[in-house]
Specification:
The chain is of the alpha/beta class. The protein folds into 2 domains: 277 residues, 3-Layer(aba) Sandwich (Rossmann fold); 144 residues, no CATH class. The protein is 43% helix and 19% strand. It is built from 18 helices and 15 strands. The strands form 4 sheets. A 9-stranded mixed β-sheet has the order 4-3-2-1-5-10-11-12-14, sandwiched between helices. It has a two-stranded antiparallel sheet with strand order 6-7. Strands 8-9 form a two-stranded antiparallel sheet. Helix 13 packs antiparallel against helix 16 and helix 14 crosses helix 15. The longest helix has 19 residues. The chain is elongated, with a radius of gyration of 23 Å.
Length: 481
């Protein structure tokens, strides 16, 4: 078996090991005997700081803010992740602050995470802000924390299930109830692998309904109260926070410790509110990030936003390379999104024009040769999501080398140059990328390219509004059935 470490140099591995060892070992025996419930109970006895005291907090370089939407079957993983955070805790370089909702109740608590300890800094019950997966909840968490804990940089982690752009009322609930079934151990390699047959059977069963669904892509599912953040919710809240609380600045890093969120469409939703998006193209194991590694650098130093986003990706690779064959994680520089949108819109316009001309059959053949050929595309656990870099590379290969497509369109040279430029944009925007052996071709960013039906909510996405991709998709799907 060949282990794949994408863009992880020996120097990076040394840095990870150095930071982790220098941070000091946590007394795991003590912590393992102390459940989160006990830590919470102890923290509840701590006097809550006054608003004046919080307002006088010294400015630190970073706020590491984790929004747990754990009112679902991932709650036990939240406990483990918080224990990992407590191995490092807040330092002179970073404030580690979490918001955790209580399983089965309308209660939420904000904790200041310190080494081996949690401090209850705010608690609410029976309000819109106390129910995870709502606009009010995320907005209040961010505005309150930014106001009371000043920092030069902010990293927001959205922790929960993710569904890319799929309808969370169906696809998301499938993960809620079947996530453990998605991974199985390959006894020959000793690595956990995705059961892609299961997810594809489910996806096919939903196709008949997908054309009439009106739900949006979602993240941060609250299974108890059936709430979630749609793509519009996410955009509205983050833009408002940047405008009101950060005075026009962006959140430096948005991490999605969730499934299937490293997509061009998702990056477009946070384009106005973040500099970097860190996420997975694939399904994430329930254990998610190992926060003891993610936070390790801040025990002794600080990092720039670019360096920290890259480090999170490399930490994920370190965590899963010997355990899982289907992991992915990438850091996307949002600064390149505008270029990508313009480039992709040009590609789409060219193909759409060809589709409406005498070259219609050739255009269909070109797209089919890519999309229906496993060597020229890379699907993820949701088969409607494919790797964007591989799509561009396959498109360029066919129009540049295959005589059949040499004179495709009315400006073949210009089209070829546009596709080549798109490849360069993707290479530049994905500043860090790791992937397991089963998905080692992944380039770090996916997009929506179904083979059966277009989800009704897709036209609401910013990416589609800018590129008109769904218009070309509709023409293509009409002719491949």
């Amino acid at each position: 078996m060949k282990l794949v470490w994408r863009r992880m140099s020996a120097y990076t591995l040394f840095l990870i090991s150095f930071f982790f060892l220098k941070a000091g070992a946590l007394d795991l025996e003590v912590l393992d005997k102390t459940s989160l419930a006990t830590l919470v109970e102890q923290a509840d006895g701590v006097t809550i700081e006054s608003s004046v005291a919080r307002a006088n907090q010294a400015r630190k370089d970073w706020n590491f803010l984790v929004y747990f939407a754990a009112n679902n079957n991932l709650y036990r993983f939240a406990i483990e992740n918080i224990k990992q955070m407590a191995k490092i805790g807040s330092t002179s370089n970073v404030n580690v602050i979490i918001q955790l909702d209580e399983l089965g109740a309308k209660n939420m608590t904000r904790y200041y995470v310190q080494k081996n300890a949690l401090t209850n800094i705010h608690k609410e019950s029976n309000t819109a802000a106390s129910i995870s997966g709502t606009r009010e909840s995320l907005y209040e968490f961010l505005t309150w924390t930014i106001a009371h804990y000043p920092a030069n940089h902010h990293c927001l982690v959205l922790w929960n299930h993710g569904s890319g752009i799929k309808d969370p009322s169906m696809w998301g609930k499938f993960f809620l109830t079947h996530r453990d079934e998605l991974f199985s151990l390959n006894e020959d390699t000793g690595l956990y692998e995705l059961n892609r047959k299961l997810s594809r059977q489910y996806a096919a069963a939903q196709d008949a309904k997908s054309l009439v669904l009106e739900y949006d892509r979602g993240i941060s599912f609250n299974d108890t109260f059936e709430t979630y953040l749609t793509n519009q919710d996410l955009q509205i809240v983050l833009d408002q926070v940047c405008r009101e609380s950060l005075h026009g600045k962006k959140i430096d890093i948005i991490c999605m410790d969730a499934c299937l969120m490293a997509m061009a469409e998702v990056a477009a939703q946070v384009e106005g509110a973040s500099d970097y998006l860190v996420a997975s193209q694939e399904v994430e194991p329930g254990s998610g990030y190992d926060y003891s590694i993610v936070l390790a650098p801040f025990a002794n130093t600080t990092l720039t936003p670019e360096a920290f986003s890259k480090f999170i990706v490399q930490a994920y690779g370190l965590q899963y390379y010997s355990k899982c064959a289907d992991y992915t994680q990438s850091a996307i520089s949002i600064a390149y999104m505008s270029e990508l949108e313009k480039n992709f819109a040009t590609v789409v316009a060219y193909l759409t024009k060809a589709m409406n001309s005498s070259q219609k059959d050739l255009c269909i053949k070109l797209l089919k040769n890519i999309r229906l050929n496993s060597k020229k595309t890379l699907e993820f656990d949701d088969p409607d999501y494919i790797d964007m870099g591989i799509f561009y590379a396959s498109l360029y290969e066919l129009i540049a080398q295959d005589k059949l497509f040499a004179k495709f369109g009315n400006s073949p040279v210009a089209f070829k140059d546009t596709v080549k430029a798109g490849l360069g944009i993707i290479a530049a925007m994905v500043c860090a990328n790791v992937a397991g052996s089963n998905v080692n071709r992944a380039t770090g960013v996916s997009f929506f390219f179904p083979t059966r039906a277009i989800h009704a909510s897709y036209k609401k996405t910013i990416f589609d509004q800018k590129t008109k991709w769904s218009t070309l998709l509709a023409l293509f799907l009409k002719n491949v059935k």
